[in-house]
Write a structure and sequence with these properties.
The chain is an alpha+beta fold and about 140 residues long. The chain folds into two domains: about 40 residues; about 80 residues, Immunoglobulin-like (Sandwich), CATH 2.60.40. It contains one helix and nine strands. A four-stranded antiparallel sheet has the order 6-5-8-9. Strands 3-4-7 form a three-stranded antiparallel sheet, with no helix packed on it. The longest helix has about 40 residues. It is elongated and about 85 Å long.
């Protein structure tokens, strides 16, 4: 419709709507990736390790158990590496970490981790990360 020589145009309106929808979808996808990214990465790493993938790195096995030391608040982490590497064990409960050189099989003792159950994540300089849990203090 033409009124006083001015023609209404709606060509740009659809473009703006699509841009808003695309922006909303991008924000949702980013939020999901931030939330689930580490979990998906850990699952992928575990599957890759089990299948013998090349990105499993130097760590071949890891386990954690409570000891009687520190009134039951100490955790001994036992790990096996395929090649000599410096490894760091990080405790989710206490936030402490310890680094040691490891060749073949080695242990790392985390002291005073607390009475709750927790997770120890071991990372090797030569590549690879593995996690394991330990139980509540008996």
């Amino acid at each position: 419709m033409k009124m006083l020589g001015i023609k209404k145009s709606q060509k740009g309106q659809g473009l703006v709507e699509y841009a808003l929808i695309l922006t909303l979808v991008a924000v949702v996808v980013i939020g999901v990736l931030i939330t689930l990214g580490p979990i998906v990465g850990e699952v992928f790493s575990k599957v890759n390790r089990v299948l013998g993938g090349t990105s499993s790195g130097a760590i071949t096995s890891v386990s954690a158990a409570r000891t009687g030391g520190g009134n039951g608040n100490d955790v001994v982490v036992t790990l096996t590496v395929s090649k000599s590497s410096s490894v760091t064990a990080f405790d989710s409960q206490s936030g402490q970490s310890k680094t040691t050189a490891c060749s073949g099989s080695c242990t790392v003792t985390l002291t005073g981790v607390g009475a709750s159950s927790g997770t120890v994540t071991v990372t090797a300089v030569e590549g690879g990360t593995a996690s394991t849990g330990y139980p509540v203090k008996p």
